[in-house]
Amino acid sequence: MLVYGCLESPEIFYELDCSFVCVQKETKKDKRDKFVGKDYGRLLKKVEKRDQRIASIREKNPEKAEKIEENIKWKNAMSRIEGVKVKMELDERKMKLCLYSSTYQDNAQLLKRGMKRKEKIHEQRKHKWDKRLETVADKQSKRQEKRDTNLQARRDVVKKKKLDKARKKGRIIS
Question: Which GO terms describe its biological process (predicted)?
Fold first, then answer.
């Protein structure tokens, strides 16, 4: 904080708050380890890629792979503490924690299930929309048909009146 004063009158002071927020750019590693979003297909690919990476590390250095998995578990735990909903499986306790949300996911089975659910909802909505379009088109064609019949009836009435008037005056002999 900077304080400025006036030389002539020392009772006038100005306070300026000069605090700046530094935003760091995300590194590739941060982006790679971030499992956020609603695109389950992309998240599933990310999880599979991470599992392959851990498997290749496990072949070379098992301790490092264990450490990475431990870090992943800690990140998940911290995310849950922060209030981020996690969709993951706890292997060591044979227990599944299934909090269905799109904020943080890293379990392949749950992501597949979520993807299927989304596709099913998409199909249902598409079916409803197609049905609605069909009913709208059907109603429109019925209304158009009714309009055409009414216009034709009006034309017939006008023609009949003209013919009757012409017969009455003797222009048409029938």
Answer: ribosomal large subunit biogenesis; ribosomal small subunit biogenesis
Burial 108-140 (b: 16+ CB within 10 A, else e): bebbeebeeeeeeeeeeeeeeeeeeeeeeeeee
**Domain residue spans in the chain?**
34-116
pLDDT at 144 over 60: yes
pLDDT tens string 149-161: 999 999 999 999 9
Calpha distance 56→15 (Å, rounded): 58
Q: Could you tell me the two tokens for 7? A: 């030389």
Contact 38, 121 (CB under 8 A): no
Residue 134's Cα: distance from chain center in Å? 26
Q: Look up the pTM and report it.
A: 0.47
Which pLDDT band, with edges at 50, 70 and 90, does 82 fall under? confident
